[in-house]
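Exam revision sheet. Question 4 asks you to relate a sequence to its structure. Input first:
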Amino acid sequence: MIKRTLMFSNPAYLSHKNSQLVISFPDKGREDDRTVPIEDIGVVVLENQQITISHGCIAALVQNNVALISCDASHMPTGLILPLDGGNTQAERFRYQIEASLPLKKQLWQQTIQQKIYNQARVLEDIGIETVNMYRWSKSVKSGDPDNYEGRAAAYYWQNIFSGYMDFNRNRGGEAPNNLLNYGYAILRAIVARSLVSSGLLPTLGIFHRNKYNAYCLADDIMEPYRPFVDRIVYDIVTEGAVVEELDTTLKTRLLQLPQVDVRFDDKTTSPLMVGMSRTTASLARCFEGVSRKINYPSL
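Answer key, structure tokens:
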């Protein structure tokens, strides 16, 4: 079943009753209370600073493996709440993950970067940009990516993706549509972290990212091949002539459709991104256990 993504941009009071998320509004004359089955929810985005949520509601959402995202005063995601319990075999999977060898991590990173560059190439190819070099770089990535093909591909990719519409530099604090990319990546990161926990893995222990101040290093690793799915949504928004300088509710709604975007795997099956992410993280858990040597990433 496809899990729902809920964004709350207006003042509201969130509680729960009988396994339902109960949504109440301060202005009772404007709207009646609404309910949503908690089992149908995958991601909740709390955007408005006047939202009140009960602790019981938080506990019920987390127990159902809902990724609860908190936004700051500028409406950008800044916090993420996830469950601690990922399953009955969690301790065993933690041990496998912690004891993973350096050669295995380098091989997993090789696969990650190969698929990231391939998916970036697919985006550029779809919009009419030359991609022979990108496909060559994707195939040339070695264990651990010592030649930094990721960096070469990124430079070419960002130089060209919006070239028909603007001069663009990818920078978190840069001009639009960097704001759209930042928002989309924040949602993607939450989806990845949710799936990692569901698969019994620690999002903190990465295979490449190692920043001691980052609680989601593994999520930042696994999201790399999925980033082009966000980029494609942002590209479509730009080509439609939308005003991207301000990240309004309409644009956020477009980006929040990310969990429902179809992704395709090598076995020719297609599934919504949120479902596909669970396949990816489950395959990663099998790699740590020694059952498999390949992460199951989708192609764009």
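Marking note for examiners. Residues 97 and 288 are 5 Å apart (CA to CA).
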